[in-house]
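I'd like us to work through together how a protein chain folds, taking it slowly. We need material for that, and I hope you will provide a protein of your own picking. Go ahead whenever you are ready, and we will take it from there:
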Amino acid sequence: MNEAKLQSNVSPRKEKWNRFWESVKYAFHVMFHPFDGFWDLIHEKRGSLAAATTFLVLFLLTRVLKLMYTNFQFISAPLQYINVFEQAASLLFPFLILCLANWSMTTLFDGKGRFSDIYMAMCYALVPYVLIQLPLVFVSNIIAFDEAAFYTVLMSFSIIWCLMLAFVGLMQVHDYGPGKTLIFLVVTVVGALIIIFLLLVFLSLLSDAFSYFVSLYREIAFRLY
């Protein structure tokens, strides 16, 4: 009886791990077959939020490692001033704001994707960046500057591949055509800028309010004591 109970506790955990691993491996299918890959990723539940978040973390980690360990001949980054958390946040927050802006705008115009679907598709679109640029960090330290063209081409190729996957992913998520997807990509960027502006205004007002109450407290404390 105890053995059966132990198996019942282990089995769901193993099942979750298998599900996670399958959704991670499915990213390779999405990379090379984006149209049916993204459709099945969302509509056939072939992807998972856990795998998507893993790809996002790897993307941020790749960016930080690229700044810290790429050969100085290929990148100019003042290592003494690099803050790992700031660098990660400088990509994470714009990424999330873009997802939020896309969801906000497409919801008003018959977009079928939920925020989780958009987030998942965008995260899976980052996989080529990790697979190409992470090895390039180490390659940059063993090739000569004369071979910089090889390095630059691969860098550019990884970014173009990611953009192409993001385009197809959003098209499949919202069930839009190419033209409508392109229009809403522009609208998404505009929406993201508006969200950033409103956040900055809110933070500015919050900072002013905090400063006011601190000054008020000091004035009261000064008069009482």
